[in-house]
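>> Question from a student workshop board

For tomorrow's exercise we were told to take the sequence and the ligand below, predict the bound structure, and bring the output to class. My setup keeps failing. Could a helper post the expected result so I can at least see what it should look like? The ligand is pyridoxal-5'-phosphate.
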Amino acid sequence: MPADDSIARRETVRDAIARAARTAGRRAEDVTLIAVSKTHPVEAIRPLIAAGQRDFGENRVQEAQAKWPALREQHPAIRLHLIGQLQSNKAEEAVAVFDAIHSVDRASLVEALGKAMVKLGRRPDCFLQVNIGDEPQKGGCAIGALPALLDQAKLAGLPVAGLMAIPTADHEPAPYFALLAKLAREHGLAGLSMGMSSDYPTAVTLGATHIRVGTALFGSRE
Ligand SMILES: *Cc1c(COP(=O)(O)O)cnc(C)c1O
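>> Workshop helper replied:
Here is what the output should look like for this input. Compare the format with yours to find the bug.
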């Protein structure tokens, strides 16, 4: 995709965020647009950086290690978000590379991240991922397991910024977003990582603080 396209698409997305925020009586500045650059090469990413985009999302540790160190040296203000599932044995590498981790979903991972943060002296923001549609194959902790996981994360010293979820495909997403917002409120958490290309305006009206948008910025993935 030509660079101009992604820059124009970013303006479209930003306009939609502003509209949705206004509808909900929120400020657009309180919504962080994470540009999900997974599978896209560095050449596709550079134009967005030049246009002012600073938050980017990747779903694999290895891909992030390959693509981002050089870019970040040139642009120190970039913030990198891990949005994909994380194996505990990759926790240390993830803590080294990412500024935020949106997929903290089980006790073994909390433990591994806690140890890695102590060892490296780096503390990326953590979002606890909730399996909001109770789907067997999906990542995220069960809703009932959230209070215990949150307690454990706090004890382990993880900076818990909020909750993350991916609604069930083929269902109206709004009820899932509303439920995640309610859970965050009940636990006194400010951050809400929810909303993707197909549903981010709805997520913003329901309180999203971080939206994860790939296709609407970069075009479709291979
Ligand atoms: C790929 C991905 C996204 C972005 O999806 P698009 O539909 O391309 O916007 C958001 N969140 C997660 C967890 C993803 O894996």
